[in-house]
Amino acid sequence: MCYIEQMKHIILASSSPRRKTILESVGLKFEVVPSMYEEDNDLPMPTNQLVMHLALGKAKSVFENHPESLVIGSDMLAVIDGKVIGKVYSKEQLIDTFRLFSGRSHSVFSGIAIIEHGRELTDWLETKVFFRDLSEQEIERYAEHTEEWQDKMGGYGIQGLASLFIDKIEGDYYSVVGLPLCRLGVLLKKFGVDIL
Fold first, then answer.
1. What angle do CA 58, 127, 168 make, to 5 degrees?
2. Are the C-beta atoms of 95 and 162 separated by less than 8 Å?
3. Cα–Cα nearest to 149, from 101, 80, 83
4. Which of 75, 96, 133, 172 is catalytic?
5. What is the rounded distance in angstroms from the CA atom of residue 111 to the CA atom of residue 125?
6. For the whole model, what pTM was predicted?
7. What are the tens digits of pLDDT across the range 85-135?
8. Cα–Cα distance for residue pair 153/149, rounded to 1 Å
9. Contact in structure between 62 and 35 (CB atoms under 8 Å)
10. Residue 167 designated active-site
11. Beta-sheet pairing, 31-32 with 10-12
């Protein structure tokens, strides 16, 4: 049961159904307002700073039209061999990405941002995801026979069929799903929102 947040109008600046589900799972009352912020994953900054920058950009774009609300923004990127991987939009891109992931670990960086009355706070964390060795047939079948990879960071959802490929993680599960819930709860407390 949530208490203090009932006094605030909270907005999630995201169209992600996974982020919405995560927030709903802890009883937070909020409105979803998708951000129109245009992400640029190629900005010349370290990945941890980049995901916070993108999360803040999303939150700001919504806050401009809802200045009396508390706005939550979030972003995530995968990194392997120093290469930043964002959302996957084609089967060819997915196959190339999974060939990179196969038998190796990659890092998922998550950034979160909260804005209220012009006050801004951001945070980030890194989670390592370890893929088992994948055969070409497994990769191609996943690309051909599912749609869950579409428009997802790295081409997979850890909570879906791709869980069959993930040997283990080191870090925060919810961060890989889409929203680092523990870190978000800590930030929300600083804005007077105590979920428990």
1. 135
2. no
3. 101
4. 75
5. 7
6. 0.90
7. 888 889 999 999 999 999 999 999 999 999 999 899 999 999 999 999 999
8. 8
9. yes
10. no
11. parallel
